[in-house]
Sequence to fold (425 residues):
Amino acid sequence: MTLSMRQGLLALLSSVTLAMAGCGGGGGGDGDSADTPTPTVVVPALPIAGPYAVACSNVAQDFSKVLPGDDVQEYWEGVPTTGAAQRYVTDLLADPANTLTVRLVAPRDTSLYGSFAGEEVTFVVVACYPTLGGNPRPDFPLPTGKAVPHMQTGAEAPLFADEAVRYPMLVFSHGYSGSPLSNDYIAALAVFASHGYVVVAPFHGDPRFTNLKVEDFGDAVTVLSHLRDFTALQALRPLALSGAIDLLVAHPQWRGHVDAARIGGFGASMGGESVMLMRGAGLTTSAGLSWTQVTNDPRLMAAVGYVPYFGQPFLPAFGRDGHGLDNVTLPYLAIGGGADTTAPIYMTEQGLGRLAGTRELVELSGVRHGFDEASTNDIFTWSLVFLDAEVRGNAAARRQLSTMASVAGGGDDHVILRYNGPAAP
Fold:
């Protein structure tokens, strides 16, 4: 970047900051009136492993195709074309014909999709589901030491725990530059599947669209200089999630076993933003903080965001002061880190205050960006109770949320914005 470009961006940033000064968050639907009872109940943690064994769809790969000097996770996560040949998980697939894959054409809107407008984009998908306790299929080992549990191979159909049941779905959106197989994401997919959800997760492949790094998110000059591509990757993510739903509800091996009337979402970091965009939130499209709605998929009933990315003060994810959330009715639980500087919790609180529907904000004190192992039980207990309440319509879960203050043990979790969902009888 030239000196003049950098000075121009700094000047623009200064003007945006001044324009935001004194502009309060405000908004409808926070439900924290003085007569709302303060949650006081400390609940026991749910077991991490639910009652079901877990199996997953075919993502067989030939790891001998990983080029010398490359890391397999670069293929799962995507590598940009700048300075190197592009990498994506499609380069490793051993059985692409039997791997779940979404192919979509980005709408011809350059304000959202930049140079990718009108282009076909591919997203590989993995689905994990409740399976038979005696599923004989072996796990598929990964070079990282993790494994895909009881993975289908070839044209094998999924083996559900009960072939007569239609299971609720959960679209799972990993964090920026991650993948469903990186770090402990595959374990997180398995947790939700073990509790009775068919979990479907795209490999977003974010670096294919921009070469930002997570640590850059707080750097105004770096982010603003990549704004066009950064906007495109954010806008493509919710389209991939909707495409994954389309794929399963139409697929002959899956459509008779998923309940298209009960679909929830879980997103980590930028995935928490993605599920919000999927349900009608407006995405910031300029340094002047204008926003545009990307899509609105009414099939998504509710979502949980773990350390969800709502942007930075110089570039909120949902427009100036979060106004892109003003008419969003998606029931949403945010679990934020009190010491998170990548996805600051005060940005999340401002955004949730704008929602027109059910919402709740839980803080994990002292937690920075990333998965906090000490809070594992807290994270999954809050998430499962909220999804049971809002996706499964479980009245007992709704009653529990109205009084639930924290989860016993683990980290220091506490409610910042109270659950304001409808009272259960």
